[in-house]
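Need the bound structure for flavin-adenine dinucleotide, inputs here:
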Amino acid sequence: MTRRATLRGAERTLLHGSRGRADVLVCGASFAGLAVARELAGAGADVLVVDRYEIGERATSACAAPTEWLMAMGAERAIRQELPCMTYHTPHGSVRHRLPWSWSSFDYRELCGALWAQCGDARFEIAKVDARIAEVVHTDRGDLTAPLIVDALGWRRVLAPGPNVQPPDARISRGLEVHPDMPPPAAGDLEVWVDRSLVRRGYAWSVPAGAEQRVGVGSYEPRDHVRAPTAAIAERLGRPAVRHQGNWFPHQLRAATEDGVFFVGDSAGHCFPLSGEGIRTAFYFGIACGRELRAVLAGERTRAAALAGYDAFSRSHRPAFAWALALQRVVPALPPRALTALLALMGRRRLSDRAYGWYLRQAAPGR
Ligand SMILES: Cc1cc2nc3c(=O)[nH]c(=O)nc-3n(C[C@H](O)[C@H](O)[C@H](O)COP(=O)(O)OP(=O)(O)OC[C@H]3O[C@@H](n4cnc5c(N)ncnc54)[C@H](O)[C@@H]3O)c2cc1C
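Answer from helper R.:
Posting the output first, comments after.
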Protein backbone atom coordinates (compact mmCIF):
# COMPACT_ATOMS: atom_id res chain seq x y z
CA MET A 1 0.00 0.00 0.00
CA THR A 2 1.36 3.44 -0.88
CA ARG A 3 1.81 5.67 2.14
CA ARG A 4 0.54 9.24 1.85
CA ALA A 5 3.36 11.64 2.61
CA THR A 6 1.26 14.13 4.57
CA LEU A 7 0.92 13.48 8.31
CA ARG A 8 -2.53 12.31 9.33
CA GLY A 9 -4.59 12.00 12.51
CA ALA A 10 -2.52 11.04 15.55
CA GLU A 11 0.71 11.81 13.71
CA ARG A 12 -0.26 15.48 13.78
CA THR A 13 1.05 16.31 17.24
CA LEU A 14 0.75 19.83 18.61
CA LEU A 15 3.64 22.17 17.96
CA HIS A 16 4.33 23.10 21.58
CA GLY A 17 6.70 25.69 23.04
CA SER A 18 9.76 26.56 21.00
CA ARG A 19 8.56 24.36 18.09
CA GLY A 20 5.70 26.79 17.60
CA ARG A 21 7.78 29.98 17.91
CA ALA A 22 10.08 31.42 15.24
CA ASP A 23 11.73 34.65 14.11
CA VAL A 24 10.02 34.31 10.72
CA LEU A 25 6.94 32.23 10.00
CA VAL A 26 6.47 31.46 6.30
CA CYS A 27 3.01 30.01 5.65
CA GLY A 28 2.96 28.10 2.37
CA ALA A 29 5.78 25.98 0.92
CA SER A 30 5.25 26.36 -2.81
CA PHE A 31 6.88 28.79 -5.25
CA ALA A 32 6.42 31.96 -3.20
CA GLY A 33 7.05 30.56 0.29
CA LEU A 34 10.17 28.64 -0.72
CA ALA A 35 11.55 31.68 -2.56
CA VAL A 36 11.19 33.72 0.66
CA ALA A 37 12.74 31.03 2.88
CA ARG A 38 15.61 30.49 0.42
CA GLU A 39 16.47 34.18 0.68
CA LEU A 40 16.79 33.83 4.47
CA ALA A 41 19.36 31.01 4.39
CA GLY A 42 22.39 31.90 6.49
CA ALA A 43 20.67 34.88 8.12
CA GLY A 44 21.10 33.23 11.52
CA ALA A 45 17.37 33.36 12.18
CA ASP A 46 14.88 30.70 13.18
CA VAL A 47 12.71 30.34 10.07
CA LEU A 48 9.65 28.09 10.28
CA VAL A 49 7.91 27.08 7.05
CA VAL A 50 4.49 25.40 7.22
CA ASP A 51 2.21 23.88 4.61
CA ARG A 52 -0.75 21.53 4.76
CA TYR A 53 1.11 19.13 2.47
CA GLU A 54 4.63 17.76 2.33
CA ILE A 55 6.99 19.98 0.29
CA GLY A 56 6.43 19.29 -3.41
CA GLU A 57 3.59 16.85 -2.76
CA ARG A 58 0.80 18.59 -4.63
CA ALA A 59 1.29 20.58 -7.85
CA THR A 60 -1.50 22.84 -9.03
CA SER A 61 0.19 24.26 -12.09
CA ALA A 62 1.28 23.32 -15.63
CA CYS A 63 4.76 24.08 -14.28
CA ALA A 64 6.19 26.09 -17.15
CA ALA A 65 8.47 29.05 -16.42
CA PRO A 66 11.16 31.01 -18.25
CA THR A 67 14.27 28.81 -18.41
CA GLU A 68 16.51 31.58 -17.13
CA TRP A 69 14.38 31.88 -13.99
CA LEU A 70 14.75 28.16 -13.27
CA MET A 71 18.51 28.46 -13.72
CA ALA A 72 18.62 31.55 -11.47
CA MET A 73 16.77 29.62 -8.76
CA GLY A 74 19.28 26.75 -8.96
CA ALA A 75 16.55 24.38 -10.10
CA GLU A 76 17.79 23.35 -13.54
CA ARG A 77 17.71 19.67 -12.60
CA ALA A 78 13.91 19.90 -12.37
CA ILE A 79 13.60 20.90 -16.06
CA ARG A 80 11.78 18.34 -18.20
CA GLN A 81 11.71 20.09 -21.55
CA GLU A 82 12.86 23.40 -23.02
CA LEU A 83 10.28 25.13 -25.23
CA PRO A 84 11.76 27.91 -27.42
CA CYS A 85 8.58 28.51 -29.46
CA MET A 86 4.91 29.19 -28.82
CA THR A 87 2.16 28.33 -31.28
CA TYR A 88 -1.16 30.16 -31.06
CA HIS A 89 -4.30 28.64 -32.58
CA THR A 90 -7.54 30.45 -33.36
CA PRO A 91 -10.48 29.18 -35.41
CA HIS A 92 -8.87 30.99 -38.37
CA GLY A 93 -5.35 29.65 -38.30
CA SER A 94 -2.16 28.97 -36.37
CA VAL A 95 0.82 31.25 -35.80
CA ARG A 96 4.22 30.28 -34.46
CA HIS A 97 6.29 32.74 -32.40
CA ARG A 98 9.98 32.19 -31.72
CA LEU A 99 10.69 33.81 -28.36
CA PRO A 100 13.83 35.80 -27.49
CA TRP A 101 13.99 33.54 -24.41
CA SER A 102 12.59 30.06 -23.79
CA TRP A 103 10.06 28.42 -21.49
CA SER A 104 10.88 25.20 -19.70
CA SER A 105 8.44 22.73 -18.25
CA PHE A 106 9.61 21.22 -14.97
CA ASP A 107 8.80 18.64 -12.35
CA TYR A 108 7.12 20.27 -9.35
CA ARG A 109 8.43 17.90 -6.70
CA GLU A 110 12.00 18.22 -7.95
CA LEU A 111 11.78 21.99 -8.19
CA CYS A 112 10.47 22.31 -4.63
CA GLY A 113 13.16 19.88 -3.45
CA ALA A 114 15.86 21.96 -5.13
CA LEU A 115 14.55 25.17 -3.54
CA TRP A 116 14.19 23.61 -0.08
CA ALA A 117 17.77 22.30 -0.29
CA GLN A 118 18.86 25.96 -0.50
CA CYS A 119 16.84 27.07 2.53
CA GLY A 120 19.66 26.44 5.02
CA ASP A 121 18.51 25.72 8.58
CA ALA A 122 14.85 26.58 8.01
CA ARG A 123 12.46 24.14 9.74
CA PHE A 124 9.43 22.64 8.03
CA GLU A 125 6.21 21.42 9.63
CA ILE A 126 3.02 20.13 8.08
CA ALA A 127 0.10 22.15 9.42
CA LYS A 128 -3.15 23.49 8.05
CA VAL A 129 -3.34 27.23 8.62
CA ASP A 130 -6.77 28.43 9.67
CA ALA A 131 -6.50 32.12 10.61
CA ARG A 132 -4.34 34.78 12.28
CA ILE A 133 -4.80 37.24 15.11
CA ALA A 134 -1.92 39.73 15.37
CA GLU A 135 1.32 37.69 15.63
CA VAL A 136 -0.44 34.40 16.33
CA VAL A 137 -1.31 32.03 13.50
CA HIS A 138 -3.89 29.38 14.32
CA THR A 139 -3.28 25.96 12.78
CA ASP A 140 -4.61 22.44 13.24
CA ARG A 141 -1.39 21.72 15.19
CA GLY A 142 -1.73 24.62 17.57
CA ASP A 143 -0.85 28.30 17.60
CA LEU A 144 2.35 29.51 15.95
CA THR A 145 3.91 32.87 16.78
CA ALA A 146 6.48 35.05 15.05
CA PRO A 147 7.15 38.78 14.78
CA LEU A 148 7.56 38.40 11.00
CA ILE A 149 4.78 36.54 9.20
CA VAL A 150 4.52 35.75 5.48
CA ASP A 151 1.34 34.61 3.74
CA ALA A 152 2.43 32.51 0.75
CA LEU A 153 -0.71 30.36 0.97
CA GLY A 154 -2.04 31.12 -2.47
CA TRP A 155 -5.13 32.88 -3.82
CA ARG A 156 -7.29 32.52 -0.70
CA ARG A 157 -5.22 35.12 1.23
CA VAL A 158 -5.86 33.24 4.47
CA LEU A 159 -3.91 35.54 6.81
CA ALA A 160 -5.59 38.80 5.79
CA PRO A 161 -8.02 40.37 8.22
CA GLY A 162 -11.68 39.68 7.42
CA PRO A 163 -13.12 36.89 5.29
CA ASN A 164 -10.88 34.97 2.87
CA VAL A 165 -11.08 35.51 -0.88
CA GLN A 166 -14.01 33.44 -2.14
CA PRO A 167 -14.88 32.38 -5.67
CA PRO A 168 -16.75 33.13 -7.80
CA ASP A 169 -17.11 36.80 -6.81
CA ALA A 170 -13.41 37.58 -6.42
CA ARG A 171 -11.06 38.81 -9.14
CA ILE A 172 -9.82 35.31 -9.87
CA SER A 173 -9.61 32.94 -12.81
CA ARG A 174 -10.01 29.19 -12.72
CA GLY A 175 -7.89 26.52 -14.35
CA LEU A 176 -7.95 22.78 -14.84
CA GLU A 177 -5.61 20.46 -16.67
CA VAL A 178 -4.98 16.80 -17.42
CA HIS A 179 -1.65 15.02 -17.69
CA PRO A 180 -1.71 12.29 -20.32
CA ASP A 181 1.49 10.47 -21.28
CA MET A 182 3.38 12.06 -24.16
CA PRO A 183 4.21 9.50 -26.83
CA PRO A 184 7.73 9.95 -28.27
CA PRO A 185 9.12 11.96 -29.99
CA ALA A 186 8.49 14.47 -27.25
CA ALA A 187 9.40 17.62 -29.24
CA GLY A 188 6.85 20.42 -29.37
CA ASP A 189 5.92 24.00 -28.70
CA LEU A 190 4.02 25.56 -25.86
CA GLU A 191 0.65 25.75 -27.60
CA VAL A 192 -2.21 28.13 -26.83
CA TRP A 193 -5.76 28.07 -28.20
CA VAL A 194 -7.89 31.19 -28.14
CA ASP A 195 -11.17 29.72 -29.27
CA ARG A 196 -14.58 30.70 -27.90
CA SER A 197 -16.02 27.32 -28.85
CA LEU A 198 -13.73 25.92 -26.13
CA VAL A 199 -13.80 28.68 -23.52
CA ARG A 200 -15.71 31.96 -23.75
CA ARG A 201 -13.20 34.16 -21.97
CA GLY A 202 -9.86 32.43 -21.58
CA TYR A 203 -7.59 30.01 -23.39
CA ALA A 204 -6.47 26.42 -23.60
CA TRP A 205 -2.89 25.19 -23.49
CA SER A 206 -0.63 22.25 -24.11
CA VAL A 207 2.73 22.08 -22.37
CA PRO A 208 5.03 19.21 -23.38
CA ALA A 209 7.01 18.00 -20.38
CA GLY A 210 9.18 15.08 -21.41
CA ALA A 211 7.18 11.91 -20.89
CA GLU A 212 3.92 13.74 -20.20
CA GLN A 213 1.82 16.48 -21.71
CA ARG A 214 -0.05 19.07 -19.63
CA VAL A 215 -3.27 20.01 -21.39
CA GLY A 216 -5.65 22.46 -19.77
CA VAL A 217 -8.04 25.38 -19.87
CA GLY A 218 -8.11 28.66 -17.98
CA SER A 219 -11.19 30.86 -17.72
CA TYR A 220 -10.93 34.53 -16.74
CA GLU A 221 -14.60 34.32 -15.83
CA PRO A 222 -14.69 32.35 -12.57
CA ARG A 223 -18.34 31.38 -13.06
CA ASP A 224 -17.58 29.46 -16.26
CA HIS A 225 -16.74 25.81 -15.71
CA VAL A 226 -13.59 24.36 -17.23
CA ARG A 227 -14.02 20.59 -16.91
CA ALA A 228 -15.90 20.07 -20.20
CA PRO A 229 -13.55 22.40 -22.17
CA THR A 230 -10.54 20.57 -20.73
CA ALA A 231 -12.00 17.24 -21.87
CA ALA A 232 -12.71 18.82 -25.28
CA ILE A 233 -9.16 20.08 -25.86
CA ALA A 234 -7.72 16.72 -24.73
CA GLU A 235 -10.02 14.96 -27.18
CA ARG A 236 -9.07 17.38 -29.95
CA LEU A 237 -5.43 16.40 -29.33
CA GLY A 238 -6.28 12.72 -29.20
CA ARG A 239 -5.16 12.43 -25.58
CA PRO A 240 -7.01 10.77 -22.70
CA ALA A 241 -8.30 13.20 -20.03
CA VAL A 242 -6.44 11.62 -17.12
CA ARG A 243 -4.77 12.84 -13.93
CA HIS A 244 -6.74 16.05 -13.35
CA GLN A 245 -5.45 18.96 -11.32
CA GLY A 246 -6.89 22.43 -10.98
CA ASN A 247 -7.04 25.58 -8.94
CA TRP A 248 -8.04 29.23 -8.91
CA PHE A 249 -5.51 31.95 -9.64
CA PRO A 250 -5.80 35.72 -9.13
CA HIS A 251 -5.90 38.21 -11.98
CA GLN A 252 -5.62 41.41 -10.02
CA LEU A 253 -2.82 42.77 -7.89
CA ARG A 254 -3.75 43.02 -4.19
CA ALA A 255 -2.06 44.77 -1.27
CA ALA A 256 1.32 43.12 -0.66
CA THR A 257 1.20 44.01 3.04
CA GLU A 258 -1.76 44.28 5.37
CA ASP A 259 -2.10 44.33 9.13
CA GLY A 260 1.63 43.63 9.59
CA VAL A 261 1.71 40.57 7.27
CA PHE A 262 3.78 40.16 4.09
CA PHE A 263 1.76 38.65 1.21
CA VAL A 264 3.68 36.98 -1.62
CA GLY A 265 2.69 35.17 -4.80
CA ASP A 266 -0.97 34.46 -5.49
CA SER A 267 -2.01 35.77 -2.06
CA ALA A 268 -0.86 39.22 -3.25
CA GLY A 269 -2.26 38.76 -6.76
CA HIS A 270 1.29 38.39 -8.11
CA CYS A 271 0.06 36.36 -11.07
CA PHE A 272 0.01 38.09 -14.45
CA PRO A 273 -3.45 38.65 -15.85
CA LEU A 274 -3.93 37.46 -19.46
CA SER A 275 -1.19 34.79 -19.31
CA GLY A 276 -2.02 33.48 -15.82
CA GLU A 277 1.71 33.17 -15.26
CA GLY A 278 2.41 33.18 -11.53
CA ILE A 279 5.51 31.08 -10.91
CA ARG A 280 8.28 33.47 -11.87
CA THR A 281 6.42 36.35 -10.21
CA ALA A 282 6.15 34.25 -7.03
CA PHE A 283 9.95 33.83 -7.21
CA TYR A 284 10.50 37.49 -8.03
CA PHE A 285 8.36 38.97 -5.27
CA GLY A 286 9.43 36.18 -2.88
CA ILE A 287 13.05 37.25 -3.29
CA ALA A 288 12.11 40.90 -2.75
CA CYS A 289 10.18 40.02 0.40
CA GLY A 290 13.01 37.79 1.65
CA ARG A 291 15.51 40.64 1.25
CA GLU A 292 13.35 42.97 3.33
CA LEU A 293 12.98 40.35 6.06
CA ARG A 294 16.71 39.70 6.03
CA ALA A 295 17.38 43.39 6.57
CA VAL A 296 15.08 43.33 9.62
CA LEU A 297 16.85 40.23 11.00
CA ALA A 298 20.21 41.96 10.52
CA GLY A 299 18.96 44.97 12.50
CA GLU A 300 19.32 47.24 9.46
CA ARG A 301 15.62 48.00 9.16
CA THR A 302 12.55 48.07 11.35
CA ARG A 303 9.65 45.77 10.62
CA ALA A 304 7.54 48.80 9.69
CA ALA A 305 10.17 50.01 7.20
CA ALA A 306 10.41 46.53 5.66
CA LEU A 307 6.63 46.34 5.27
CA ALA A 308 6.60 49.77 3.63
CA GLY A 309 9.56 48.96 1.35
CA TYR A 310 8.09 45.68 0.16
CA ASP A 311 4.67 47.22 -0.37
CA ALA A 312 6.19 50.04 -2.45
CA PHE A 313 8.16 47.53 -4.51
CA SER A 314 5.03 45.53 -5.28
CA ARG A 315 3.03 48.68 -6.08
CA SER A 316 5.72 49.86 -8.51
CA HIS A 317 4.65 46.95 -10.75
CA ARG A 318 1.06 48.14 -10.95
CA PRO A 319 1.31 49.57 -14.51
CA ALA A 320 2.43 46.23 -15.97
CA PHE A 321 -0.32 44.33 -14.16
CA ALA A 322 -2.88 46.94 -15.22
CA TRP A 323 -1.79 46.58 -18.87
CA ALA A 324 -2.08 42.82 -18.70
CA LEU A 325 -5.53 43.08 -17.10
CA ALA A 326 -6.67 45.49 -19.82
CA LEU A 327 -5.48 43.02 -22.47
CA GLN A 328 -7.23 40.20 -20.63
CA ARG A 329 -10.47 42.14 -21.04
CA VAL A 330 -9.85 43.16 -24.65
CA VAL A 331 -8.51 39.94 -26.20
CA PRO A 332 -11.62 37.79 -25.64
CA ALA A 333 -13.74 40.58 -27.14
CA LEU A 334 -11.70 40.93 -30.35
CA PRO A 335 -13.21 39.52 -33.54
CA PRO A 336 -11.39 36.19 -34.05
CA ARG A 337 -10.11 37.17 -37.51
CA ALA A 338 -8.63 40.39 -36.14
CA LEU A 339 -6.97 38.46 -33.32
CA THR A 340 -5.50 35.99 -35.82
CA ALA A 341 -4.10 38.88 -37.90
CA LEU A 342 -2.68 40.51 -34.77
CA LEU A 343 -0.98 37.29 -33.68
CA ALA A 344 0.49 36.89 -37.17
CA LEU A 345 1.87 40.43 -36.98
CA MET A 346 3.34 39.76 -33.55
CA GLY A 347 5.09 36.71 -34.96
CA ARG A 348 7.44 39.01 -36.89
CA ARG A 349 10.85 38.73 -35.32
CA ARG A 350 11.38 42.36 -34.31
CA LEU A 351 7.92 42.70 -32.85
CA SER A 352 8.00 39.44 -30.96
CA ASP A 353 11.45 40.25 -29.56
CA ARG A 354 10.11 43.56 -28.28
CA ALA A 355 6.82 42.23 -26.91
CA TYR A 356 8.21 39.13 -25.18
CA GLY A 357 11.29 41.08 -24.05
CA TRP A 358 9.03 43.66 -22.37
CA TYR A 359 6.97 40.90 -20.79
CA LEU A 360 10.01 39.14 -19.30
CA ARG A 361 11.46 42.41 -18.00
CA GLN A 362 8.39 43.00 -15.81
CA ALA A 363 9.72 40.30 -13.48
CA ALA A 364 13.19 39.42 -14.68
CA PRO A 365 15.72 37.32 -12.78
CA GLY A 366 18.66 39.10 -11.20
CA ARG A 367 16.91 42.36 -10.29
C1 LIG B 1 -4.20 24.67 -13.90
C2 LIG B 1 -3.18 25.77 -13.67
C3 LIG B 1 -2.02 25.81 -14.44
C4 LIG B 1 -1.08 26.82 -14.23
N1 LIG B 1 0.06 26.82 -14.98
C5 LIG B 1 1.02 27.74 -14.77
C6 LIG B 1 2.25 27.70 -15.50
O1 LIG B 1 2.49 26.80 -16.29
N2 LIG B 1 3.16 28.68 -15.27
C7 LIG B 1 2.93 29.68 -14.36
O2 LIG B 1 3.81 30.55 -14.20
N3 LIG B 1 1.79 29.74 -13.63
C8 LIG B 1 0.84 28.77 -13.80
N4 LIG B 1 -0.31 28.81 -13.04
C9 LIG B 1 -0.43 29.81 -11.97
C10 LIG B 1 0.46 29.33 -10.79
O3 LIG B 1 0.15 27.99 -10.49
C11 LIG B 1 0.27 30.18 -9.52
O4 LIG B 1 0.31 31.53 -9.84
C12 LIG B 1 1.39 29.81 -8.53
O5 LIG B 1 1.22 28.47 -8.11
C13 LIG B 1 1.41 30.75 -7.33
O6 LIG B 1 2.38 30.30 -6.42
P1 LIG B 1 2.19 30.50 -4.85
O7 LIG B 1 3.38 29.89 -4.20
O8 LIG B 1 1.83 31.91 -4.57
O9 LIG B 1 0.86 29.68 -4.49
P2 LIG B 1 0.58 28.12 -4.58
O10 LIG B 1 1.46 27.49 -5.60
O11 LIG B 1 -0.90 27.99 -4.73
O12 LIG B 1 1.01 27.57 -3.16
C14 LIG B 1 0.28 27.78 -1.99
C15 LIG B 1 0.79 26.79 -0.96
O13 LIG B 1 0.07 27.00 0.25
C16 LIG B 1 -0.44 25.79 0.73
N5 LIG B 1 -1.69 26.09 1.43
C17 LIG B 1 -2.80 26.66 0.93
N6 LIG B 1 -3.72 26.84 1.89
C18 LIG B 1 -3.16 26.36 3.02
C19 LIG B 1 -3.61 26.30 4.38
N7 LIG B 1 -4.80 26.74 4.75
N8 LIG B 1 -2.76 25.78 5.30
C20 LIG B 1 -1.54 25.34 4.96
N9 LIG B 1 -1.08 25.37 3.70
C21 LIG B 1 -1.87 25.88 2.74
C22 LIG B 1 -0.63 24.90 -0.48
O14 LIG B 1 -0.58 23.52 -0.14
C23 LIG B 1 0.55 25.33 -1.37
O15 LIG B 1 1.71 24.57 -1.12
C24 LIG B 1 -1.29 27.81 -13.23
C25 LIG B 1 -2.46 27.77 -12.47
C26 LIG B 1 -3.39 26.76 -12.66
C27 LIG B 1 -4.63 26.72 -11.81
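Comments: Residues 198 and 312 are 39 Å apart (CA to CA). The pocket of flavin-adenine dinucleotide is lined by residues 28-33, 51-53, 58, 60-65, 128-129, 152-154, 158, 175-177, 216, 246-247, 249, 265-266, 271, 276-279, 282 (CB under 6 Å).
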